[in-house]
């Protein structure tokens, strides 16, 4: 029997995550049935659940991956850039928005999920604060407001943007709003 390489295993796992992202974005967590996950990934339930213990583990892995991608953008370009990406990326099953909305809903309704998710949420907050601290040392952000407050402000704006997009409201005129948000934290 031929051996499957680590790269092939990683590629298959990513294929499952990509298909699951589409399924969760289209149908939500509850509507993402095993049958729909099979259709979306093009794989059998056995193949899917060989890589992930259950649907919850699959969703958490997807949300973790998106949180890591967002933290990478924050570290390089800031939280406002994550928000800009939400505006410029099509709001479809490939964007972060679908996963982010399901995370928000589950945080509100599922204490067990909230507990498991707290470490990932903290990672995004740490990335935001670390970037703001680097910018503060460079004299690029306001020095009359503590970095922790600036980070919390940006996180609240992000949540507001996510809510705005979730309601299906127009995002066409939000670029200048994000310019204002960015200017509010800069020196």
In brief:
This protein has helices at 6-31, 34-41, 45-51, 55-77, 79-88, 96-109, 111-137, 147-166, 175-185. The protein is mainly alpha-helical and 187 residues long.
Under the CATH scheme, which architecture of the largest domain would be assigned? Orthogonal Bundle
The fraction of residues in strands falls at under 5%
Compute the number of strand runs: 0
Share in helix:
over 70%
Task: Return the string of H and E elements.
Answer: HHHHHHHHH
> By helix and strand content, what is the structural category?
mainly alpha
Anisotropy-based shape: elongated
Could you please say which CATH topology of the largest domain applies here? Tetracycline Repressor, domain 2
Q: Give the domain tally.
A: 2
CATH superfamily annotation of the largest domain: Tetracycline Repressor, domain 2
Q: N-to-C terminal Cα separation, in Å?
A: 63 Å
CATH secondary-structure class of the largest domain: Mainly Alpha
Number of DSSP helical runs: 9
Mean pLDDT: 89
How would a crystallographer describe the biggest sheet?
none
Radius of gyration: 18 Å
Uncertain residue segments:
none
């Amino acid at each position: 029997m031929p051996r499957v390489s680590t790269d092939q295993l990683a590629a298959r796992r990513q294929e499952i995550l990509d298909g699951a992202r589409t399924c969760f974005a289209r149908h939500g967590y509850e509507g993402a049935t095993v049958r729909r996950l099979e259709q979306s990934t093009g794989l059998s339930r056995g193949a899917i659940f060989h890589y992930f213990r259950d649907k919850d583990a699959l969703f958490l892995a997807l949300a973790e991956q998106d949180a890591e991608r967002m933290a990478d953008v924050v570290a390089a370009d800031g939280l406002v850039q994550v928000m800009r990406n939400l505006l410029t990326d099509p709001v479809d099953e490939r964007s972060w928005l679908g996963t982010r909305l399901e995370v928000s809903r589950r945080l509100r309704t599922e204490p067990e999920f909230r507990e498991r998710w707290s470490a990932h949420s903290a990672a995004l907050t740490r990335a935001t604060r670390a970037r703001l601290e680097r910018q503060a040392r460079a004299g690029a952000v306001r020095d009359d407001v503590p970095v922790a407050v600036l980070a919390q402000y940006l996180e609240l704006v992000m949540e507001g943007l996510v809510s705005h997009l979730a309601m299906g409201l127009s995002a066409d005129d939000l670029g200048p709003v994000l310019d204002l948000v960015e200017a509010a934290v800069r020196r």
